[in-house]
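Usage example:
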Amino acid sequence: MYASRNIRLCTKDCLCLFVCPTGATDTENGQIDKARCISGCRACVDACPSHAIFLVAEEYPEPVPRDPEIAERLLELCAQKVAQQESASALSTELKKTGGGRLARALARSARILAEDCARESGYLTPQCSKTAKLIAEHSGQDDPAVKELYGRLKRLLS
Amino acid sequence: MMNDRCLSAVFSNLTKAAALQQNEEISSLFDQLAQHYTHDTADAGGFDTLQKLIGEDLRSTYASLAAAAGEKHERGPLRALTWGEKVTKIQKSLISRYERTGESLLEDTEVFICEACGFISIGKAKPKLCPICKAPESRFSQVE
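Running the assembly step on the lines above writes:
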């Protein structure tokens, strides 16, 4: 659990500099130096008057399991949203820089966000959760060596 | 086995999740997998084709799925369905307006999208607050 700064909220009162025992909060780029940050220390988090510093977790719990029927139907809706995205995306290419093209691009991005939300709520909530692990394991046997390598690396990093 | 459309959406969502966890390596791997499963469609159809697809979701999918999620107390899915139905209605209304008024709908105005829920806003400036999900102005992006 190391500290991270939301620069949009930071009011530059710099109390984090007073309490950090390693100087990790005092950097030229506005980000906290993870290499110096003491995991779980949270002195800066508690001292910050603008609530701009938070802790990033390194371990994530298993999410509450989804009802299998709901999860399945959410994935069907997810596929429909991706189909809509594809249709809108092709339309935006066709209409180029016109107003209609801009609308089609917005519709494509909107449909994509809806598809991703359905995917998340069907239970693929975090990279670390068991449904994601199962999905990666099921697809590990790929013909394309480059894709196989992507799955292999994810499996190693997430185990 | 999961189809490519779902795989691309599951992986692009996990790309964002890993970025929020500040794990760039995992995020980039998921992003590459998402790209691998993303395919272009040759046939664009028109706004009417898109409107038909959207209409199907609004006619029955959202209502019946939300009812099932409610019965089973699946509040996360219910939240996604509530926002999703509202955003989809906005999509439908924008397409109808564009079909009626043509290019004048988008003359001298900007298009913004809420990155949190997909809400589309047409206007001079970003909304201060998303009317669907209450995300702040900073979560809006301009669509070029």
